[in-house]
Amino acid sequence: YRADFGKDRSAKPVDWAFLQNGKPTFFVEAKDAGKKLAGYNEQLGDYFAKSPEAKLGILTNGVLWWFYTDVVNANVMDKEPFLKWDVVNDEKPPYDFLTLLQKSQFTAELIRTFAQRKRAQNLLVNELIRLLEPSPEFTRLAIANIETRNLTAAVVDSWKPVLANAIGEWAKQRIMSSV
Predict the structure, then answer these.
(1) pLDDT digits (tens, 9 = 90+) for 35-94
(2) CB 3 within 8 A of CB 47
(3) pLDDT at residue 124 in the model
(4) Whole-number Å distance between alpha carbons of 117 and 69
(5) DSSP string, 64-81
(6) Higher pLDDT, 90 or 5
C-alpha cells in the first residue's frame, strides 16, 4: 500500500496496511530486529496523515511494539504511543488491547476508546509518580500525627525513605485486597 504524498515526494510503501472495505484501518511500520524505534514514528505519522480513515499506527522491531492513534488531535497521529509492549521483558502481553485487533472485533471506535483510556491512565500514573514522590510538604503532612519531634527539615528528610516504602506497601496491600 502506498500513501499519496504528492508528485514531489517519494511514495514509500507502508510495510503493512490492514484494509476494511478497501480502505486502510491501520498501518504497521516494521524495522529490523533490535533497531531503536525512536524517530521512526514520524514516518508512520506521515502515512497516518495521508490516510485519515486509518486510526491505528503500529511501530515495531519485532521485540518492541508501539501503538499510536489520534487522541490529541483528530487525524494527526499522537507523538507518544498510547501503549508500549516489550515482547521479551514485559511480564504479560497486553491481552486487553490485542484482542481488539482480532478481525471479528476490530473497530476504529474500540481502538480509540481504548487509546483514550490508556492515555488518561498513563497521564495519571505520571502525575501520581510526581505527586507521591515524597516532597517535604507531603512528608510533613503524612507524619504530622505520628512524629513527636519538631518537624525540622532534618526530621522530615529522615522520614522520606520510610514514607516512600510505606506508599509502596500500601499500594501492594490495595492490589492484594482487590484480587
Answers:
(1) 999 988 988 888 888 888 889 999 999 999 999 999 999 889 999 999 999 999 988 999
(2) yes
(3) 92
(4) 12
(5) EEEEE--SSBTTB--SS-
(6) 90
Locate all alpha helices (DSSP H) within the chain, ordered by sequence.
41-50, 95-98, 108-132, 136-143, 153-178
How far from the centroid of its chain's Cα atoms is residue 94's Cα? 11
Q: Is there a contact between 70 and 57 (Cβ–Cβ < 8 Å)? A: no
- Per-residue pLDDT, averaged over 146-168, amounts to 92
Tell the burial category of 123 from Cβ atoms under 10 Å away from its Cβ (0-12, 13-18, 19+). exposed
Q: Report the predicted TM-score, pTM, of the whole model to 2 decimal places.
A: 0.73
The DSSP symbol for 99 reads G
**Residue 101, CA distances (Å) to 108, 116, 168 in order:** 10, 16, 34
Residues in the chain, overall count: 179
Burial (0-12, 13-18, 19+ Cβ within 10 Å), 69: buried
- Residues in contact with 18: Cβ distance below 8 Å, sequence separation at least 6, in sequence order: 24, 25, 26, 27, 28
Write 6-13 long-range contacts (CB < 8 A, 24+): 12/43
In the chain, the largest separation of any two C-alpha atoms, in whole Å, equals: 75
Residue type, 122: N
